[in-house]
Structures are given as structure tokens and as C-alpha cells.
Amino acid sequence: MTGTLTTAAITADDLEALARGAAVLGTGGGGDPYIGRLLAAQALREHGPVALVAPSDLPDDAQVFPVAMMGAPTVMVEKTPSVERIGDTVAALARHIGVTPTHIACIEAGGVNSTFPLVAAAQLGLPVVDGDGMGRAFPELQMVLQTLSGIGCTPMSIADEKGNVGVLQSVDNRSAEALARSLTITMGCAAIISNYAMTGAQARASLVAGTLSLCTRIGRRVAEVRAEHGDAVGAVAAELGGRVLHSGKVTDVARRTTTGFARGTAVVSGAGELVLEFQNEHLVARRDGVVEVTTPDLIIVLDTDSGEPVTTEALRFGHRVSVLAAPADERWHSPGGIELVGPRYFGYDTDPVRFDAREDR
């Protein structure tokens, strides 16, 4: 299929498309895709391509170690992570557990958190799993499908750019979030973590399969359609089975970094006024006061002309954008999934609204 990874490996030539697609699935969060691409390119130049393994091909006794950035995406624009710390964080957790990692994985789709694992995989000489723990990005550690599968977040390692490294053990996954968030704030609101270490059998059951291939396909499709002067926004919606919710100009952005998150709202004019509410990721979209779509489904902001994804930290007054709505992995719509990542968890007074619930309104 045009736009997919052509070999069972990720090379430097794949990174631009992969990072672009990851930022699309990141729903505004997951960190700056440009920074993530640069870090991955450096690692791949030094260590060579990274083998890509489908979750279905993992042996039962594989030892799969996710790695990610934790903190406010707005901070990482000015505080670039140390490349060396990414692989070191995985190694620290492996030493603590007493097992040898066989595979690296993404815990979420996002501009940085889909490329950081490539850095660790290249540094450690390990394959990366073609999947992730969400199918999108969410702001808190417990908000992964592994939690629904009963897999523990801890033990987890956490490190800053100075070389400080710690290993946490918590009573449950939500407690791990609270403890690690406090440490992340102390570490300057951005840290590297490795958590949810799992066996191959657990990874097959709990990961969203095909994430990295999907990211690359989306990224390449945007470039192809743009080169043909076509509708890149519509092409992304088609790839995701979603719909274009709104197009217009950003007329207001209120954003603040607090308790380790980038929180705020953005207003997009056009055919009515669409208000986006975000906590690292876009979680609720309201048109003229009516809720159009909420978490767990995806709310994605793209540059209208280019189709490039726009992260929450990059939203600016006057930016002409299109807002897409797309379906989440169906497991997120289970009662346990809604309890974990539904709009009420984040403090929004609304039941979940699916991406297509108001399409024919």
C-alpha cells in the first residue's frame, strides 16, 4: 500500500512522515514532532535502522519496555531532552526488575512519544513494536489500555536531563501518576520515563497494533496530497475514518502550564464558533456552546492549507486551522475506559459524545 513502511525496519527516511502522523494521532499532545524527529534521526545515524515487529509476532516470553517523555509539552520547546538519558532510563528499569529487554514500545502516539522509543531501540540495539498503549495520546500515566488489562505501571524509572534517575513502586497506576507527576515538576516539568514493562503475551493483548505504520502512512499521505495541491485535511480524515468538524481562524488562545500539564482553551471562528478545551491533548470541542465531540474520541487540529498537525503549544492567534474528529480504539468506550478517560474524569460536565454523533445534525 502506498505510504506504508516498505521494510520491517524504520530508517531515517521514514522519520519525517512518522513524526507528522504521530502528531496527528497525538491530538495536540505528545510533544513537539520536530524535536522528536531530530532526536530519532541522531540516534539512527549513529546506530542504524531499527527493526519493526508486529505485536502478533511477539513471543509470549518477550520483555517489552515502553519509554516516553512525561510533562508539559510547552516546556520541551525550550528544554530539549538529553538523547543519552532515553536509553539509560530503560536500562535503569531493566536493572531494577532483573530482566533483559527484548523489545521497545511506544506507550502513546504523539510527536515525541512515538519517536523517543526509536532512540532507545537504536541505542540498545533492540527492535521496536509496531503499536502503542492508547492509539492516541492522553495526559496521565494510568490512561492506557494496559490499565484496563490489569498491567501495572510500576516499577517505573524516571530521569531528568542532568542524570538524576529514580525508580518508583506504587500501589496502583493512578498513584504512580501522582508520584511521578510530583517528581516531573521537581525535574523542571519534563522527564524521561520507562514503565508498563510487560511480557510479549501481555503486549499482544493490550497494545493498539500498527500505530507506527499508521503514523507513517498518514504522514506520507499528507505530503503526497499536498504535492498534488489536493485536500490534505480531507485525506487525513479519510485515513482515520473520521470527519472534518470545523475550519476557521484561531481567534483566541488561553494557555497555562500548571501541575505539569499544558491546560487551556482555543477558539476557532468560522461557521459558528468552535471552542477547544485541552489538557496537553484536546479533550472537548463545543460549537456555539453545544458539545460536538469529547474524549476518548480524537480531536485533531491541522493547518488548513498544508495539513500539518498543530500541537496545543503551537496554537496561535490568526492561525487558519481545520479540526477533525475521529474514532478511538473501541476499548476506550467500555465502561472502564470511560471511567478512566471520559470527559467527567477531566472535570467537564458532559457525558461522552462520539465523533460522529452530531454528523447529521
From TrEMBL:
Pfam families: S-Me-THD_C, S-Me-THD_N. Residues 172-352 form the S-Me-THD-like C-terminal domain. It comes from the Bacteria. Residues 13-169 form the S-Me-THD N-terminal domain. Transmembrane segments: none annotated. This is DUF917 domain-containing protein. It comes from Pseudonocardia kunmingensis.
